[in-house]
Amino acid sequence: MNYKAVWNKYVAKGHERTIKAKKNVLLAVFLKGIGILIGFAYFPISLAYLSPDKFGIFLTLSSVIDWFSQLDVGIGNGLRNKFGEAVADGDDELAQGYVSTAYFIVGSVFSGFTLIFFAASWFLPWAEWLQAEASLNKEIAILAMLMFGAFAIRFVSSLVYQLFYAFQQTGKVEIFGTITKVLFLLLILIISYTTEESLILFGAAKTFTFAFIPMFVGFYYFSGRFKKYRPKLKLAKMIHVRSLFSLGFQFFLIRISMIIIHQTNNFLIAGFVNLEGVTHFQAAYKYLSIFLMLFVILTNQLWGANIEAYKKGDMQWMKKTMRGVTKIWIGTLLIAVLMVAFSPIFYDVWLQGKIHIPFMLSVAVALSVTITNWVNMFNIVINGTGKIWLQMVTWLGAAVMNIPVSIFFATYLGMGTVGIVLGTVVCMMPLAIISPIQVKKLLNKTDKGIWAK
User: Fold this and answer.
1) Tens digit of pLDDT for each residue in 103-120?
2) Which is nearest to 381 in space by CA: 318, 332, 325, 444?
């Protein structure tokens, strides 16, 4: 069977919405694969340039800085849904109003918090918090300011990506992401061969590379294809704030909960185990989170498609898509088992014996990734319908329990880093049970009461 026949049989067949999704997912998976290879290359290069402790400091700070991504109060996700609905209704003026309001709100929030963060950073005991040498406090403070400043630029300028998601063009966002990663890898290679060990230089290379690419994309597309949606200050209105905020605030609480559950691990490991444990966890996570990236791609692509399908009452398409995604999840589960089995060999070749990753840590991370993918699979439908109240409440409950349960497993049960990861797995079990029940009710139009909020 030739290439064209395979393409026509498996990709260019089905509903127009499905064909579009397949093309973008395939492109995104290909580009994400390149990104994964870059990530694997970047890790040992970084370890060769920075000591495990300093690399642990960088990874922990990256996690802390990423917490601030939630300060848009869910406006980004609210923009994706509301912009998508406006475009589906053919109301370009309303769509531009949503874009303008989102940029104004997020830009204002990050401008204020950046100034506050810069002022406070000099007085914070960074070294003490990260269990690092006291002499590194000033260097860590400067690194934190550089990372936060670049992050603020990136987060505001990345709002343009929500338009691509709404138009179901995940592949293009992945192209921009791949370009960013390639440039970063080149910078790290240049730095590692031309300079001595420097946390500040390493942090600046990564954060500013990731900041300026989305800024360039925004300027380019708002001057061309997205010109009719270009943000304008006069179009930022309170009525749009309420519309974005009503749905966006629920997304905000969900994302805050996700941060507490998934991105506090580095900080908890640094505080209750050691900095080297952060590097161990990140190495295992980078290896075993490959399929988490796949489900992020599916979520980003199918979220917008489900908004359109639900708006038009196309429940059959949504059911068929859900069955397809479930098959993908089962496939990733089987491959994850094999990856865990061969993990000692892979780590030895990849990291060349520089650090040792405990086998049980790989098992725990694989469990965490698998249950996260299970939940994300059903969130594709729930997010597209906008009925996320029950999901929000369940995520909040999991977030409240996550830190104490993780600390209990790590310290009182003496499980260390493995215990912190298992704490996350235990706290996500209610989500793993409730999410599929709600999706079944939504797709069968039997959602009532809390299932329909």
Assistant:
1) 998 888 888 888 998 888
2) 318
